[in-house]
């Protein structure tokens, strides 16, 4: 989802199965079997794995937003049905989610002073906490992706393929209100919990790029930019998790992006040069692979 005008939208996504077909070698008895390349195909498992990441226009972090830590967080839990009411056992806590470059080597992260490298390593750290063992490979989480389309061409803070880039005059192709226009958003988090008598589970991530008017409560403030991703499912229900996405631009942030991604569970994905974690437990190697 991408939006570059004012306003907001709300979208309900129900993810469909991603599968590939296998056709037997004997054409006379074509035997089609389906196996999902995704962990938790159809999002039907009560136990959910979801994470959030944020990028600037050059697919880096640049600088962390104040008091937010590195912009990689996760909400991963298993349900314990052994007693009533059922219990939600979270695998990632606030100490993990708020880790940032100033936390140095805590958790085995080794990124030096680089907020970019820190975020990539934090994703792997969170992935290890969320990982589900599966065949043929483990998987970790769905990924909510945020991106700020502003580009400060004069600051030249985007490395180009790992090398330092040169500044260039603003082209009009990319918006920027001035210094700091490529900032990361605030990231507030409501951990998944049971929110009603019927056993409805719900959780969310939300925030704004307009950090001077950031608010911890989850309301949209004035003409601020804003995002919110909220997920819901009834315990034991046969339906899928439902994700609600809200994205609103502002005059300072006219180009914002919000996606829900199924990244590769290891190796590079979606054009990033970092090792990622995600839901795709198989790579597309079968020639008969279909989406
Ligand atoms: C649901 O996910 C948990 C791990 O989070 C796994 O142990 C369990 O087997 C899954 N259930 C189903 C029906 O896939
Ligand atoms: C990480 O750094 C922040 C800010 O200095 C601090 O509040 C927090 O306790 C640190 N976390 C850990 C696990 O040391
Ligand atoms: C939001 O923008 C509209 C249109 O520009 C303006 O009329 C309104 O006063 C603004 N509201 C706030 C709270 O700044
Ligand atoms: C759950 O839904 C699937 C697909 O709609 C259906 O085949 C299955 O019988 C349902 N299971 C239960 C326990 O209702």
- The structural class is mainly beta
The total strand number stands at: 13
Q: How would you describe the oligomerization state of the chains in this entry?
A: single chain
- Stretches with pLDDT under 50, minimum 5 residues: 1-29
Q: In which range does the helix fraction lie?
A: under 10%
| Sheet with most strands: strand arrangement | 1-13-8-5-6-7
Distance between the termini: 19 Å
* Overall domain count: 1
Largest sheet: 6 strands, mixed
Radius of gyration: 20 Å
Bound molecules: 2-acetamido-2-deoxy-beta-D-glucopyranose
Rounded mean pLDDT score: 84
- Strand-residue fraction? 25-35%
Q: What overall form do the CA principal axes indicate? A: globular
Give, in order, the helices and strands. Answer: EEEEEEEHHEEEEEE
Write up what this structure looks like:
- With 291 residues, the protein is mainly beta.
- It has one domain (4-261).
- Helix content is 7%, strand content 28%.
- The protein has two helices and 13 strands, in the order βββββββααββββββ.
- The longest helix is centred in the middle third of the chain and has 16 residues, at 115-130.
- Bound molecules: 2-acetamido-2-deoxy-beta-D-glucopyranose (4 copies).
- Residues 222-223 line the site of one 2-acetamido-2-deoxy-beta-D-glucopyranose.
- Keywords: Signal.
- Residues 1-27 form the signal peptide.
């Amino acid at each position: 989802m991408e939006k570059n005008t004012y306003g907001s939208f709300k979208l309900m996504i129900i993810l469909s199965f991603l599968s590939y077909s296998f056709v037997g070698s004997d054409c006379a008895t074509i035997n089609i079997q389906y196996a999902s390349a995704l962990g938790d195909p159809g999002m039907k498992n009560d136990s959910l794995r979801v994470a959030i990441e944020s990028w600037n226009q050059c697919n880096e972090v640049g600088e962390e937003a104040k008091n937010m830590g590195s912009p990689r967080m996760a909400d991963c839990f298993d349900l314990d049905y052994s007693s009533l009411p059922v219990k939600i056992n979270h695998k990632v806590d606030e100490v993990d989610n708020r880790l940032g470059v100033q936390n140095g080597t805590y958790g085995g992260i080794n990124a030096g002073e680089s907020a970019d490298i820190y975020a990539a390593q934090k994703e792997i750290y969170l992935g290890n906490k969320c990982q589900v063992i599966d065949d043929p490979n483990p998987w970790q989480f769905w990924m909510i992706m945020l991106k700020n389309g502003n580009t400060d061409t004069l600051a030249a803070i985007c490395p180009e393929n790992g090398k330092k880039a040169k500044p260039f005059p603003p082209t009009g192709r990319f918006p920027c209100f001035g210094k700091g226009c490529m900032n990361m958003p605030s990231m507030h988090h409501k951990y998944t919990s049971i929110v009603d008598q019927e056993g409805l589970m719900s959780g969310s991530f939300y925030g704004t790029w307009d950090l001077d008017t950031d608010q911890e409560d989850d309301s949209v403030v004035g003409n601020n930019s804003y995002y919110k991703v909220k997920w819901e499912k009834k315990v034991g229900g046969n339906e899928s998790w439902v994700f609600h996405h809200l994205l609103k631009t502002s005059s300072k942030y006219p180009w914002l992006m919000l996606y829900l991604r199924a990244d590769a569970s290891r190796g590079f994905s979606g054009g990033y040069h970092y090792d990622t974690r995600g839901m795709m437990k198989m790579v597309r190697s079968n020639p008969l692979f279909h989406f």
